[in-house]
TrEMBL record:
Coiled coil spans: none
PANTHER family the UniProt entry points to: AP-4-A PHOSPHORYLASE, HIT FAMILY HYDROLASE
Keyword Nucleotide-binding on entry: yes
Residue ranges occupied by any HIT domain in the UniProt entry: 34-141
Pfam families: HIT (PF01230)
Organism this protein belongs to: Leptospira idonii
Chain location of the short sequence motif Histidine triad motif per the record: 126-130
Active site annotation, chain numbering: 128
Keyword Nucleotide-binding appears in the UniProt entry: yes
GO-annotated molecular function: catalytic activity; nucleotide binding
Swiss-Prot/TrEMBL keywords: Nucleotide-binding
Top-level taxonomy: Bacteria, Pseudomonadati, Spirochaetota, Spirochaetia, Leptospirales
Record protein name field: HIT domain-containing protein
Binding-site residues, substrate: 59, 130
């Protein structure tokens, strides 16, 4: 293995809750996102806003501050199952989310995308889009020396902050 290959994979520092989640310790429901939709008490709910078709939520284990997921209320597992109305709704919500993050958090870039299927890194069998804000000078000490990222913004505080902005932003 070349030196580049040895150092090209980012390490992750997990919170205690994330480590259990990554190992499969999750609420006993058929679908986590349907549990969010149905407001099941055993499922952590970080919903910022919803429409008739979609839900906007803070990611429970964010890659960066402001990491949001948007998903259809209808349980579907593939992108091709999205109706035009659902796709349009998710698109509209994505734009609103990006505008809020740009105007209030000085975000200067985004990664947007879907992890479709287990081979792409998808761990939830319910289609959802990730919006991951990117910030200037993001690389810190651990990024540079250990190729590791630590996220220090607690998801429930992020939810509180984003809910206020969502309701104020038009």
């Amino acid at each position: 293995m070349s030196s580049y290959e040895e150092h090209s994979h980012r390490k992750n520092l997990f919170s205690v809750g994330k480590l259990g989640y990554a190992k499969g310790d999750r609420p006993a429901v058929d679908c986590i996102l349907c549990g969010v939709r149905d407001k099941l008490e055993i499922v952590p709910n970080l919903t910022i806003a919803s429409t008739d078709l979609s839900i906007v939520s803070v990611n429970l284990f964010p890659y960066n501050p402001g990491h949001i997921i948007i998903f259809p209320k209808r349980h579907i597992t593939t992108y091709l199952e999205l109706t035009e109305e659902e796709a349009s709704d998710i698109h509209r919500l994505t734009q609103k989310t990006m505008r809020i993050l740009e105007s209030h958090w000085r975000v200067q870039g985004f990664n947007l995308g879907y992890n479709l299927g287990k081979n792409s890194g998808g761990s939830i069998p319910h289609i959802h889009e990730h919006i991951v804000p990117r910030f200037p000078n993001e690389a810190g000490f651990l990024d540079v020396f250990a190729n590791t990222r630590v996220v220090i913004y607690e998801p429930y505080k992020m939810l509180e902050d984003l809910k206020k902005l969502w309701n104020e932003f038009e």
